[in-house]
Amino acid sequence: MSHLTAPSPRPLGLSGLNIAPLVFGGNVFGWTVDQPTSFALLDRFVDAGLNAIDTADVYSAWVPGNQGGESETIIGQWLKARPSRRDQVVLITKVGAAIGPITGGLKAKYIAESVEGSLRRLHTDHIDLYLSHYPDPATPAEETLRAYDGLIRQGKVRAIGASNHNAAQLRAALDAAGRDGLPRYTVIQPEYNLYDRASYEGPLRDLAIAEGLGVITYYSLASGFLSGKYRSAADLGKSVRGEGIAKYLDARGLRILDALDGVARKHQARPAEVALAWLIARAGVSAPIASATSLDQLDSLIRATRLTLDADDLAALEQASAPA
């Protein structure tokens, strides 16, 4: 892949961070990808001029035998083995999800304890972007932001953001920051892809653009549906994520696959590359998150960052995916 021009970095909102327009999803590390393969994927990713890696303290506690922290641990072992890589990457992790018997949440004490575990597992002295994984209605936004303020002052965190927040929750947190002179969420992480458009488009996207927030989207390929690998109920057994994909196999989903196929043929690309290029081209998106379990998949993701869609391509995808 190295012969291709590396994509230009983009400012991640007002966070002070710059990232290439694709984020590696680390949820697969310690789940469907072992450590040696993880190292090879991370090396290829950075060598291609990409730099942002997304993980969370809870990844991948859902796997039998895991307890959470496995993804951060693998990334940390990679950084420990290759210390020169630390300055090449933007490390993104999250706090607040329930891990086993631990309730999670965004109380100051829990954040202070959790960050130390993440720093230790990641073999680093700072996290570039620390995200509130889920809203915590039981904890005032001021308490959470004050905890982050302390971490920023100590140099343990560079910027903060929020995942899975709706427009009202985000607005309340931004207002609390302004009122109390506390650090603001500068990045959000919503679910968004060609099929799942409704939860981000509208008030949340409007707020993100108005406030200059960085936006990194998750489920960018709709759990793999937009790769074109699943086209009927018979295909759902193809991966561990298959059962979650049945909901996409409706008339609109098949229309989207049809449009992706057409644009992909025109560019000699894969449907997943087109779906990611659509996100990369969207106003109000800094970069999609996508994961890969093989070098072939990763090379395809890298190609997506070099794919430019024209007005006809975008119109075809818009028409097929327009929310009902």
Structural notes for this entry:
The chain has 324 residues and is of the alpha/beta class. It has one domain: Alpha-Beta Barrel (TIM Barrel). It has ten helices and ten strands. It has helices at residues 35-47, 70-81, 108-122, 141-153, 167-180, 203-210, 251-267, 271-281, 295-304, 311-321, and strands at 10-11, 18-19, 23-25, 52-54, 90-95, 127-132, 157-163, 185-189, 214-217, 287-290. Strands 3-4-5-6-7-8-9-10 form an eight-stranded parallel barrel, surrounded by four helices. A two-stranded antiparallel ribbon has the order 1-2. Helix 2 crosses helix 3 (108-122), helix 3 (108-122) packs parallel to helix 4 (141-153) and helix 7 (251-267) crosses helix 8. InterPro entries: AKR_Detox_Biosynth (IPR050523), NAD(P)_OxRdtase_dom_sf (IPR036812), NADP_OxRdtase_dom (IPR023210). It holds the Pfam family Aldo_ket_red. This is Aldo/keto reductase.
Determine the mean pLDDT.
96
Return the CATH architecture: Alpha-Beta Barrel
The total beta strand count reads 10
Query: If helices are DSSP runs of H or I spanning 4 or more residues, what is the number of helices?
Result: 10
Main beta sheet: strand number and arrangement? Answer: 8 strands, parallel, barrel
Give the radius of gyration: 19 Å
CATH superfamily: NADP-dependent oxidoreductase domain
Secondary structural class? alpha/beta
Q: Give the N-terminus to C-terminus distance in angstroms.
A: 39 Å
Shape: globular
Helix content: 25-40%
Low-confidence stretches: none
Strands of the biggest beta sheet: in what spatial order? 3-4-5-6-7-8-9-10
CATH topology: TIM Barrel
Strand content: 5-15%
Order of helices and strands: EEEHEHEHEHEHEHEHHEHH
Number of domains: 1
The level 1 CATH classification is Alpha Beta
